[in-house]
Design goal:
7-stranded mixed β-sheet; Beta Polymerase, domain 2; alpha+beta; 9 helices; Methane Monooxygenase Hydroxylase, Chain G, domain 1; about 350 residues
């Protein structure tokens, strides 16, 4: 399991085309709205959404579960470049933004913290901005973070209902970025728990946890860091689909992603400090063990010397044949270590 995760983390060859397996079922949800009304529909097939291409309203079409043929046909109908269709279907892509034939395309990952296995999971999402539509392609509905946005769409007079497709495009990206903070908060809790565990009792399991969370930080960093370039690219683009008033909102997202990057860096520094703390605790335990062993050796040294003297093969040794000689030797073996313990205590050696 860890080896597979490492391979996914270290996969860097963009020339290898990796297409996903077709989903068993595709779910299509359409929100067609203006400031006065909204129509929300769940469609059976993507073909049913084609009628919204020339809608006078703002249309958000969300596709959950991707099938190659359906995605290609949908992109062809909405006049989306085939290269974008390839990016939608491919896996392991680095987050990016592209502008082709007047269509603005954004690819990034939603992050999800799995409470059961205490691990980060990612879902690649593609967002396409057209003149009067926004298409979003998701892999797995269980990691969806757009429910608050759907609630806002249902509220008459809400800000999103008062604006166009570019504001919807911004709102989708903003929801994903805001969710990064929720995920990082969970990671922060894991780091705090690990820190307390290391302080109380550092063992090999602690080292395993440190390595595991450091890999989670790599996943976090690889998905969060490129989003800054994505938002910056949108701000720099002169695409007519992005109105000037909406650029202010993208600047706010840019500020948020800068904060998320800084927080991710802080977490990385904390993990380095935790590793140092773990090693220091191990060294401290080893020093304590060596200290105890050295003290025991010192305390046994007098008994060893006395026993060695009286064990020598000489015919005449003082008190060798004395009836109290044995007791005298044992007394020395006990009294000298006691005196040594008192002296060690005075010197503060333990």
């Amino acid at each position: 399991m860890n080896m597979l995760r490492n391979k996914r983390l270290l996969r860097v060859n963009p020339t290898v085309q990796t297409f996903r397996k077709d989903a068993a079922k595709t779910k299509v949800c359409v929100y067609d709205y203006n400031k006065d009304s909204i129509s929300e529909k769940n469609l059976q097939t993507p073909e049913e959404s084609y009628v919204y291409l020339n809608s006078s309203n703002v249309t958000w079409i969300n596709i959950e579960g991707l099938q190659k043929k359906e995605v290609e046909e949908m992109c062809a109908h909405f006049k989306i470049h085939p290269l974008i269709a390839e990016d939608i279907l491919s896996t392991g892509q680095r987050p990016k933004v592209d502008e082709i034939s007047g269509i603005l395309y954004c690819l990034l990952n939603m992050l999800y913290f799995n409470e059961d296995i205490r691990s980060l999971e990612t879902e690649q999402i593609s967002i396409v901005l057209g003149e009067n539509f926004v298409l979003s392609f998701q892999e797995d509905a269980s990691k969806d973070v757009f429910n608050p946005l759907r609630e806002k769409l249902r509220i008459a007079g809400s800000r999103i209902r008062q604006n166009g497709t570019d504001f919807l495009f911004y709102s989708l990206i903003d929801m994903i970025v805001d969710n990064y903070f929720a995920v990082m908060e969970k990671l922060g809790e894991e780091i705090e728990i690990l820190e307390e565990s290391i302080i109380r009792h550092a063992d090999t399991r602690s080292l395993s946890q440190i390595n595991f969370i450091r890999k989670e930080m790599i996943v976090l960093k690889r998905n969060v860091a490129p989003v800054r370039d994505i938002v910056n690219g949108i701000l720099r683009s002169e695409n007519k689909l992005i109105e000037e008033k909406t650029e202010t909102y993208f600047k706010d997202v840019y500020d948020h992603i800068i904060q998320a990057n800084d927080l991710a860096e802080n977490y990385r520094d904390m993990m380095i400090n935790l590793q140092d703390l773990y090693l220091n605790n191990l060294n401290l335990k080893m020093n304590e063990a060596m200290k105890v062993m050295a003290i025991v050796t010192c305390l046994l040294a007098p008994a060893t010397v006395i026993g060695g003297i009286f064990g020598m093969n000489f015919s005449k040794i003082p008190w060798l044949h004395d009836k109290y000689g044995f007791y005298f030797a044992v007394a020395l073996m006990l009294l000298i270590p006691v005196w040594m313990i008192i002296m060690f205590k005075k010197k503060g050696w333990f």
